[in-house]
Specification:
Blueprint: E1 2-9, H1 13-24, E2 29-32, H2 43-46, E3 50-53, E4 56-57, H3 62-73, H4 79-98, E5 103-107, E6 113-117, H5 133-147, E7 151-153, E8 156-164, E9 167-175, E10 178-189, H6 198-204, E11 213-214, H7 223-230, E12 235-236, E13 241-247, H8 263-268, E14 270-272, H9 286-294, E15 303-307, H10 308-311, H11 322-328, E16 334-336, H12 339-346, H13 350-366, E17 391-403, E18 406-407, E19 414-416, E20 422-428, H14 447-463
Parallel strand pairs: 1-2, 1-10, 2-7, 10-20, 11-17
Antiparallel strand pairs: 3-4, 3-6, 5-6, 8-9, 9-10, 12-18, 13-17, 14-15, 15-17, 16-17, 19-20
The structure holds flavin-adenine dinucleotide.
The site of flavin-adenine dinucleotide has 40 residues, from helix 1, helix 2, strand 8, strand 17 and helix 14.
Length: 469
């Protein structure tokens, strides 16, 4: 029987940050990680590494971050969690720097100057994480944990929580295949959500789960959410996810995800279904578009349509743009000199597409894109006409990077029951939690900011450390 003050279920950034902070505050900390490899694959390892809060720089002052979060979540996020994120964002960056994290500032395709873990990913087709900033930081955090007397127990798959009289006392796990009980005064669920669990995606997000592209690490199977639910935790917000529109051939070609990032072209152009009709407001951004595509009868039936001005303009901006990464990744880019011919090549209804483009171009010329059905908003992303041949079509599908809902927590990361009471000894942080993201506008806080900030706060709450709120 092993005994700790604090254990985390999962050794991604959430678990590693929480365990390090707990050890720093004098607690005996252990990270339980199901995988055995030295550099096990989790979302934290393969992340792009852009550290943001709603795409804003994490070093912005608290008041500015609060305003940004409140505007984007339209009052639906838990106010205590909003305060906690905004108040501790800069501190989390400083804490990581003290741990040896390196950041660079980089202007991404959306024009925002973001903090990115260094050395940054080489923005080229395919998944390329080895030796990049996130991988380097994970290894530093593991070394620091060991130096502080903590442990990272690979090959330890948590199966269930030990609950007695409503309190969590530890976990039951399979360690190198053998059952083991691990006692802890506090357990932090940090398993990374259910982005790779088709069955849970089918149940909570879309019956067409098989038609989505998983951009998530295969480790995110929702174990923590199921265990917390069994212990009486409230689950909320399971219906939306963090994802991006992806080239459809990314389903069989790994060089077509996570880059190119097609979002910025989606935000500039038009997206139509097989009938050639628009079905969503492209101006709302790629994350909401991937959610709306997931709700289509067939999430693999949408196509992105644009003209030569967009292909040689917006699509080229930033390091992750569609031009030229679609080409270098070997993805189809249908091309024709008129829209009817393009529709025929791309398998789209020609009359529908011609009519859609005409109405869209007319509305843009008249300055009335909001009058379109569905409306086209222009406050976040400029709409560009589709008028200059050649015209292009890219087959799309919806990519799921991570889930947004999960276990209800308060600002001390204590797991909550539906009546608002806590489950003593049980905490959750990172991608597995609910209360900050989602809703009709599919607000996305940032997976890394949630991992870093909530990882710190969970450990500090357990250690009884007063925290800045
Ligand atoms: C391709 C890609 C790009 C991304 N880019 C960005 C970005 O630029 N910016 C950003 O903010 N976010 C990004 N994200 C999201 C971000 O990386 C994640 O939200 C974040 O890393 C999640 O950290 P975590 O510690 O909560 O979970 P994870 O990193 O997924 O770690 C969870 C760990 O728990 C382990 N585990 C699961 N179940 C068990 C169990 N039963 N027992 C023991 N261990 C278990 C898993 O094996 C895993 O190692 C990206 C994600 C992906 C996939």
């Amino acid at each position: 029987m092993m005994d700790f003050d604090v254990i985390t279920i999962g050794g991604g950034f959430t678990g590693l940050v929480a365990a390090n902070r707990a050890a720093q505050l004098g607690l005996r900390a252990g990270v339980l990680e199901q995988q055995t490899e030295e550099r096990y694959i989790c979302n934290s390892r393969i992340t792009t590494g852009v550290c943001h809060i709603l795409f804003a720089n994490m070093k912005l002052p608290e008041a500015e971050l609060t305003a940004i979060i409140e505007a984007a979540t339209e009052g639906r996020a838990r106010p205590d969690l909003v305060r906690a994120m905004a108040a501790n964002s800069r501190r989390a960056v400083d804490w990581l720097i003290a741990e040896g994290a390196r950041f660079v500032e980089m202007v991404m395709g959306d024009g925002i100057r973001s903090l990115i873990l260094a050395p940054p990913r080489r923005f080229r087709a395919g998944l390329d994480w080895e030796g990049r900033g996130a991988d380097a930081l994970m290894r530093k955090l593991e070394q620091s944990l060991i130096r502080r007397g903590g442990q990272l127990l690979r090959g330890t798959r948590v199966e269930s929580l030990i609950i007695e009289d409503g309190a969590c006392l530890g976990v039951e796990a399979l360690r190198d295949g053998a059952p083991v009980k691990i006692n802890a005064k506090a357990v932090i669920v940090a398993d990374g959500g259910f982005g790779a669990n088709k069955e849970m995606i089918r149940r909570h997000i879309t019956p067409a789960a098989d038609r989505l592209l998983s951009r998530s690490s295969p480790s995110a199977m929702g174990d923590g959410i199921r265990m917390a639910e069994a212990a009486g935790a409230e689950l909320t917000g399971l219906g939306e996810f963090y994802g991006h529109p992806v080239h459809r051939e990314g389903l069989s070609n790994d060089k077509l995800w996570p880059f190119p990032m097609i979002d910025q072209t989606v935000n500039a152009a038009i997206v139509v279904g097989a009938d050639g009709r628009r079905f969503a407001d492209e101006g709302l951004g790629g994350i909401i578009m991937s959610n709306l595509m997931a709700q289509m009868d067939d999430p693999q039936s949408a196509s992105l349509i644009f003209d030569d001005a967009i292909w040689n303009g917006v699509a080229k901006e930033g390091p992750t743009g569609a031009n030229p990464l679609i080409i270098s990744g070997g993805g189809s880019l249908h091309q024709a000199d008129d829209l009817a011919a393009l529709a025929d090549i791309a398998g789209i209804d020609a009359a529908g597409l011609v009519q859609t483009a005409a109405a869209y171009n007319q509305a843009l010329a008249a300055g009335t894109p909001e009058a379109l059905d569905p409306p086209r908003s222009i406050d976040r992303f400029a709409a560009h006409p589709v008028t200059e041949p050649p015209f292009y079509a890219v087959p799309l599908c919806s990519g799921v990077t991570g889930t947004m809902g999960g276990i209800s927590i308060d600002a001390a990361c204590r797991v909550l029951r539906a009546d608002g009471s806590t489950i003593p000894g049980l905490y959750a942080a990172g991608t597995t939690i609910a209360g900050l993201e989602g809703g009709p506008t599919v607000a996305y806080m940032g997976g890394l900011s949630k991992a870093f900030i909530l990882g710190l706060l969970a450990a500090e709450a357990i250690a009884g450390e007063p925290k800045a709120e």
